[in-house]
């Protein structure tokens, strides 16, 4: 368990083929409702890798649990060695090779942070190669729900001049002696703190991933700063049963 309502799952293809992907891409898990109707759910791949994944190498996803949800029942019923049907990878919510920006604004809520975890090796290379700066604004209700928070904090400590990790807690702040408590913690929603980082159309590319209301609010705010649509890349995560 990553959080009280989020599970972390690791999968390997059972046909012996590799499941390589570009950080930011997702897979679709296929299953049926109780009445036999086919359906599917999309999950961003969270695996950190700095090489092309080969046969037998695992991929990871984070799954939000929805009470009474069919997908939730599927994952909660999985045992070690269990199987799911999946397709992919899909999507273009990725860092683009042609990007020449000075800074990335990575904004997420909930499991929307998983693609940014997978991007860490790419971001590390970009920091070293061209000094790119990164701000990760991550919204959670409380410290228990700060997915992969330890990993992002560790990355920020390695690159303090280039990577800022800004957890935004909407309900409960961490205790003063908690590892979650540091100078960049904010109380509120991520969209409330965009002004603090002065988005700049001449040097920023923004990524938005998570709750649709957050994505829409931040998208509108970033347009107000003059960022053109190609510089605001977005994915909406809708909780569905």
Strand content: 25-35%
List the total number of helices: 4
The secondary structure category is alpha/beta
What is the terminal-to-terminal distance? 19 Å
Largest sheet: 6 strands, parallel
Mean pLDDT value: 92
Number of strands: 11
Q: Would you give an account of this structure?
A:
It is a single chain. By secondary structure, the protein is an alpha/beta fold. It has helices spanning 70-76, 114-130, 149-158, 212-224; strands at 6-11, 26-32, 38-44, 59-64, 85-90, 103-109, 133-140, 163-169, 186-187, 204-210, 232-236. It contains four helices and eleven strands. The strands form three sheets. A six-stranded parallel β-sheet has the order 9-8-7-6-10-11, with helices on both faces. Strands 3-2-5 form a three-stranded antiparallel β-sheet. A two-stranded antiparallel sheet has the order 1-4. The two termini are 19 Å apart.
Give the tags.
28% strand; three-stranded antiparallel β-sheet; single chain; alpha/beta; 11 strands
Nutshell version of this structure?
Helix content is 20%, strand content 28%. It has four helices and eleven strands. The longest helix has 17 residues, at 114-130.
